[in-house]
Every structure is written in structure tokens, then in C-alpha cells.
Design goal:
This protein has eight helices and 32 strands. It has about 475 residues and is mostly beta strands. A hairpin with a 3-residue loop joins β2 and β3. Bound molecules: CU-O-CU linkage and copper (II) ion. Copper (II) ion binds next to loops. The site of CU-O-CU linkage has 10 residues, from β6 and β31. It comes from Fodinibius salipaludis. This is Bilirubin oxidase.
């Protein structure tokens, strides 16, 4: 168990046995959580910085405004967002506002990259309150840029949400979860091997929450709102508490759910967000609430590819392993003036209805020996239009995962509703709301319904496993 004293995570079986042996949590959760500042300028500057993290790890970081994660953007619906993006990192980049519905030239299409100088963003916030985020989107190098630190929250509020009086201020915590690899000399490094590029994506064995390894945070015994973002390149988490306490899911990628949903676990794939309420006054023992990623199974899609991905995913704990994420240390004061009285109806949603869909598009996700992960048999090409859509049309998209690894599929310029998933996995609580990214496990067919209301132009859709995306698992959609 020497690893733990150095702050290292261990193989899942080791973690479990240590915890069973009564290990002190303060050995695992050694550093206080940090919360990024709110962006209070109209400049976002990406630069290279050498960082020391938790006094022992080094990272050749890329940061927005010198912050890890980037500063949190907070806007209200109806406001105009203006920011000047400066690229000082010495390679191509461009910012995508994930989940935001913006004009095509504001969306961070990889064709709009700049290798130096600046790019002006200026758009009106015209969508539901929710937890969105921003990150770079250059073709082939999104993975390393996000991994090295370029990602931040973009939080939108509106009147409907404010009327709910959800926990705010100190009681609302945006938390971005990211796994990292650290070598023997303490360097956080990005160097995917061929199998990682081809199969699993880059999986690390150390967890950072808001840039801090397995942090702790002192909380009061009362409800908190946690805005969870899976900002990892490839790792899926099954969000849970160590003691299996239940929590309430109130929001998803595209804001508040129609109704709150209680659960004890929640899958969160790269790119996805979950807005949850946790009542720390209730049910946690020893004044401690350990947020973990619980084991889950990835369906094997059989065949040679399935076996190969098993073999090739070696080196890091595989998808579905158990991980400690962070600890909430629960204090004693009770601030009884702040309890949340949650209505049964959280928000009004007007999902498109199936009868109005003008067509169904099949989006086949394949793994081919020579090319790697493809969408409908092809790799990304910068200007080739793969799907042409008439503005205003409602369509059903069916994602069909024929490969042996999970693919979290993200469509720009829209929010959609998940309709169904074949096999034995039901829709999960976040899928009762608006989504922009949906997890498609091996062998699954997932149908989503979407209305293409955005401005005419070129946008992308892609797998949000960033190694898959960088290897070309992306395509263009044009709204005409
Ligand atoms: Cu968060 Cu096109 O991605
Ligand atoms: Cu993928």
C-alpha cells in the first residue's frame, strides 16, 4: 500500500481491500478542492505554463487565463457573450462552446483554427439554463490540449431556474472530473500508444477534480448542488457514493430535467454533465461522503475486435473499474434556513415528437483494422459534407455501435432527446432531459430525436472519446 502515501491511486482490487481494512480517508483525500474563478474579462488567453500540482506532480500545462480548469463563465439567458480568444500556445486551436447553440462561425469548427493571434466570439445566449462547457477543437490535437488543461465551465442561468431557488453560492459546486497518467518522476503526461489511439482511448489511473488529485471539501450538513462534468478524454464514470446513498438528478447536458430523479448511481461519459442535489444532512456516516466511480460493465461485442480491445487496453485500470473521486467532509452546524423544497415539476420541456420526424438517419460506428474508428465507414475530412439537413427539420438519428468499445456521441448546434436504446440498458436519469452527448455502448443502437433549429452552416458531430475524435471519428453536418 505504499502508493497511497504518495497520493497514488491503486489498482481497484487494492483500493477495495485497503478501505475494508479501515484505511484513513485522509490518506487518499489530501488536498483541498479548488474552484476556478469566474471569468471577469472579455479576454481568454491560452498559454503554456509549467505547473506543480499538489506539490509533487508536474504538468506542462496549457491554460486559459492561467487557470486550471479555465475560468468559469457565468451568463444569463438573453445576454450577449463577447470574448476575444488569444492563442499563445504555439499550435493550432479554436474554442468550442460545448452544448451552446451558436452561429456556425462561433462554434469552433476545426476549419476555423488559428495558430496565433486572436479570434473574436460574439453571440447571444439564447437557450435554457444549464451546465455547458468550453474546450479547444482543432482537428487531431483536441485530446492533448484538453488533457493539458484547456477546459472550463460555461454556466447559463434563466428566470425559470432562478425561481427554483436551488442551492447557490458556496452550496453550488461545479466539479470537472478528469483522469490522468503520472510517470515515476511525477510528470502528468500524455502519450497514447497505438492501441490507445485505436481502441480504448487514453485512460489514466489518477483522478483530478478541478485540477486537484482526489480532493476533499468541507461542507455543511445541508443540500448542495453539484454540477458534474466528465472532462476526461476517454474514461466513463459511474457516479455514486461509497455508502450507496441516494442523490437527486435535477439536470443534464441541456439543463433541468422535467422532473427530479432519485438514484444511487449514474453513468457519466466524456463530455456529459449531470446536475445533482446531495443532502449531506442525511445518511452519511462518520461525517464523510465519498464520491466514487462505482464498477460497471462494458458489454463485450464479441468477436476478434472484442478480444483485441481487452488485450490492448492494458496499462491502466480499464473502463468500469472502481475509483475514489473526492470526499466531502461534513461539518456540524446546521443552517436550517437553506433547505431546498423541490417541486415535482422542475422545468418545462418541449421535446420533439416522433410523428413530426421527417426521416431516420443511421449513424454506423465501426472499427476497421486499417482505418480505425469510423462514422458510416469514413474518417473526418475538413470540408466534406456528410449529412445535409434542412433547417427546422426534426429527424431521428440512430447511433449503431458495431465496435467493441463505448462511443459517447456528441452533436454540435443542437440539444436532443434520447428515445430508446436496445438491449438491456434502459435510459438513465440524465436521459430524461435534453442531451447533446449520448453514450452508445458496444452492440447498442440508440435512437435520439432532434430538431435542427440552428443557423444555416457547417457544424460537426463526433465521438467525444477524444482519442477517437482526433483519429477521425468525426463528421460534418450542414444545415441548409
Ligand atoms: Cu465537447 Cu465537439 O465537443
Ligand atoms: Cu468513440
Amino acid at each position: 500500500y505504499t502508493g497511497a502515501s504518495a497520493g497514488f491511486l491503486l489498482a481497484p482490487s487494492v483500493i477495495t481491500s485497503c478501505l475494508n481494512a479501515g484505511t484513513n480517508n485522509s490518506d487518499i483525500y489530501r488536498y483541498p478542492l479548488q474552484l476556478p474563478d469566474t471569468l471577469n474579462s472579455d479576454q481568454l488567453r491560452a498559454s503554456r505554463d509549467n505547473l506543480t500540482i499538489a506539490e509533487q506532480y508536474t504538468l506542462e500545462a496549457l491554460q486559459f487565463n492561467g487557470s486550471l480548469p479555465g475560468p468559469t463563465i457565468r451568463m444569463k439567458r438573453g445576454e450577449q457573450f463577447q470574448v476575444q480568444f488569444h492563442n499563445d500556445i504555439g499550435q493550432e486551436s479554436i474554442i468550442h462552446w460545448h452544448g451552446m447553440i451558436v452561429p456556425p462561425d462561433m462554434d469552433g469548427h476545426p476549419k476555423d483554427v488559428i495558430s496565433e493571434g486572436s479570434y473574436s466570439y460574439d453571440f447571444k445566449i439564447n437557450q435554457r439554463a444549464g451546465t455547458y462547457w468550453y474546450h479547444p477543437h482543432p482537428h487531431r490535437i483536441t485530446g492533448p490540449q484538453v488533457y493539458r488543461g484547456l477546459a472550463g465551465f460555461f454556466i447559463v442561468t434563466d428566470d425559470e431556474e432562478e425561481a427554483l431557488n436551488l442551492p447557490s453560492g458556496d452550496y453550488e459546486l461545479p466539479l470537472v472530473i478528469q483522469d490522468r497518467k503520472i510517470d515515476d518522476s511525477g510528470n502528468i503526461y500524455y502519450d497514447p500508444s497505438m492501441p490507445e489511439r485505436m481502441m480504448t482511448g487514453y485512460l489514466g489511473e489518477h483522478i483530478l477534480v478541478n485540477g486537484v488529485p482526489n480532493p476533499y471539501h468541507e461542507v455543511q450538513p445541508r443540500p448542495y448542488r453539484l454540477r458534474l462534468l466528465n472532462g476526461s478524454n476517454a474514461r466513463i464514470y459511474n457516479i455514486a457514493f461509497r455508502d450507496d446513498n441516494s442523490f437527486t438528478v435535477i439536470g443534464s447536458d441541456g439543463g433541468l430535467l422535467p422532473q427530479p430523479v432519485e438514484t444511487t448511481e449514474l453513468l457519466l461519459a466524456p463530455g456529459e454533465r449531470a446536475d445533482i442535489l446531495v443532502d449531506f444532512s442525511n445518511g452519511f456516516s462518520n461525517n464523510s461522503a465519498e464520491l466514487i466511480s462505482k464498477t460497471f460493465s462494458v458489454p463485450s461485442n464479441g468477436g476478434m475486435m472484442g478480444n483485441m480491445s481487452q488485450m490492448m487496453g492494458q496499462g491502466s485500470p480499464e473502463q468500469g473499474s472502481e475509483f475514489p473521486l473526492m470526499e466531502f467532509r461534513i461539518g456540524n452546524e446546521i443552517n436550517s434556513s437553506n433547505f431546498v423544497d423541490l417541486p415535482q415539476q422542475l422545468s418545462e420541456v418541449n421535446f420533439p415528437i416522433e410523428d413530426n420526424a421527417v426521416r431516420t438517419r443511421s449513424i454506423e460506428l465501426n472499427m476497421e483494422m486499417m482505418t480505425g474508428h469510423t462514422i458510416n465507414g469514413r474518417l473526418f475530412e475538413m470540408l466534406r459534407v456528410d449529412e445535409k439537413i434542412t433547417q427546422g427539420d426534426t429527424e431521428i438519428w440512430e447511433f449503431i455501435n458495431n465496435s467493441a468499445v463505448p462511443h459517447p456521441m456528441h452533436i454540435h448546434a443542437v440539444q436532443f432527446k434520447v428515445l430508446s436504446r436496445n438491449g438491456n440498458r434502459d435510459l438513465i436519469p440524465t436521459e430524461t432531459g435534453w442531451k447533446d452527448t449520448v453514450l452508445v455502448m458496444p452492440g447498442e443502437r440508440v435512437r435520439v430525436i432532434v430538431t435542427f433549429d440552428a443557423l444555416k452552416g457547417l457544424y460537426v458531430f463526433h465521438c467525444h472519446n477524444l482519442e477517437h475524435e482526433d483519429a477521425g471519428m468525426m463528421a460534418n453536418l450542414e444545415i441548409t
